[in-house]
Amino acid sequence: MSSRSSIKPPVITLSAGPVALYPRVLQGLARPVEYDYDPWFQQFYEDVARKAAKAMRVAQPALILHCEPAPGIEATAASLIGPDDVVLNLASGVYGKGFGYWSARYHKEMVEIEVPFNESIGPAAVAAAFKQRPDIKVVSLVHHDTPSGTINPAREIGKIVRDHGALLIVDAVSSFGGMDIHPDDCFADVFITGPGKCLGGAPGLTVMSVSERAWQHIAANPKAPFASALSLKDWKDAWSKDKPFPFTPSVAEVNGLDAALDQYLEEGAEKVWHRHALTARATRAGIQAMGLSLWAKSEAIASPTCTAVKVPDGMKDSDIIAAARAEFGVVFSSGRNDTLGKLIRIGHMGPVAEPIYAIVALTAFGGALRKLGRKVDLGAGIEAASAVIAQGKA
Fold first, then answer.
1. For residue 366, what is the enclosing H or E element?
2. By three-state DSSP, how is residue 301 classified?
3. Is the pLDDT of residue 310 over 90?
4. Which of 60, 108, 188, 276 has the lowest CB atom count within 10 Å?
């Protein structure tokens, strides 16, 4: 049995998250850990909450939960969904399907639209669900279902949900900061993200925007938790320097979030989105030129922050991932649950959302296949990706 010390760290991580950190985030995490009730830190915390709101393009300071986004999404289900609520769950992938299991603990009834995990949810299907069940009160949508690398049309779906007076939960954990998606744009009542993906930060926080409509629904929910790690109510006003924290916040993580937001805002959102999209487009072009297939049924729904590649027939994902790491020091991600063994994910998030990393990914992926005896035209892949990069158009 090998010990951890015998395993070399990777050279480059191109995973679907957690991702490599920006240098200024590392510096932020190394700042002094201040006492949470010191006036300096209370003002700093409020400033960070307001900075997150600026990045999300909303007026109200962000709600920050001191956990990675999965428990934050679970807390949303616990706080928002009441015993009289009918929930429409939109499942186009592992995470969308998974929300339904959390919802089941709290809802009256759930209606679900499920599509194959290489497709996306059509707005027409959502409209049809409301026509059949006008009593739907809460809708859950994953914008980018990372284990599939596919995108759902959040704006179009959000408009339908708002027109019917229902509340919309949007999981934008692996899309916000890497593409043009914001709470108000997609009519989200609870918009959930975190620093550990496209913002190039550490994965220990959940950052949320919660609408007044959602807060009213939470207040009216007799089962909404309080004095609990799954409570949104407890943290509702914690952004204010004049309000107490329910429990000790993750001070170092807040320092890192502050640095990640500075990185994003100073570079400029549009520039950040462009390099994510260009890196992904170059990668997709190279993958297909090598004779491999994308997982997404249509390239139109392929994510700009994560490229999912079908595992070639007769091969194992674990062998390809291991060969890429052993030969090139490059880390890729496998699928999850229903997509495990069927695809390999190449992450384009944060500091590795740069076009040169498309070349790195293709070299490692193609080189791993060659090492395992599969013939691929690696040169064609590099040429195709280079042509996209030269055009500079995402």
1. helix 356-371
2. helix
3. yes
4. 108
Within this chain, do residues 57 and 71 fall inside the same structural domain, yes or no? Answer: yes
For residues 294-315, average pLDDT: 97
Q: Is 310 found in the same domain as 235?
A: no
Which residue segment(s) compose the domain that 361 sits in? 7-19+268-391
Q: In the structure encoding, which two tokens stand for residue 23, read together?
A: 């240098």
- Asked if residue 355 and residue 221 are part of one domain, the reply reads no
pLDDT of 294 strictly over 60: yes
- DSSP H helical segments within 57-205, as ranges? 69-80, 94-103, 123-132, 154-163
Domain match, 70 and 197 both: yes
C-alpha–C-alpha distance, residues 263 and 170, integer Å = 24
Number of domains in the chain: 2
Which single residue is written with the structure tokens 């407890």?
A: 234
Q: Distance (Å, rounded) from C-alpha 12 to C-alpha 30?
A: 22
Calculate the average pLDDT of the chain: 97
Residue 81 lies in a domain: yes
The answer to the question of residue 1 being in a domain is no
Q: Tell me if 199 sits within 8 A of 258, measured CB to CB.
A: no
Instruction: Find the CATH number of the domain harbouring 44.
Output: 3.40.640.10
Residues 257 and 294 in one domain: no
Q: How far apart are CA 375 and CA 107, in angstroms?
A: 51
CATH classification of the domain holding 378: 3.90.1150.10
Percentage, residues of the chain above pLDDT 70: 98
Kindly tell me if the per-residue pLDDT of 128 is higher than 80: yes
Which of 351, 302, 274 minimizes the C-alpha distance to 24? 351
Residue 2 counted as domain residue: no
Sequential DSSP letters for 16-85: SSS-PPPHHHHHHHTS----TTSHHHHHHHHHHHHHHHHHHT-SSPPEEESS-HHHHHHHHHHHH--TT-
Q: Cβ distance 329 to 367 under 8 Å?
A: no
176 and 275 assigned to the same domain: no
Helix (H, G, I), strand (E, B) or coil at 350: helix
The overall pTM is greater than 0.85: yes
Predicted local confidence at residue 6, as pLDDT: 79
Q: Coil, strand, or helix at residue 200?
A: coil
Nearest to 95 by CA among 125, 72, 78, 66: 72
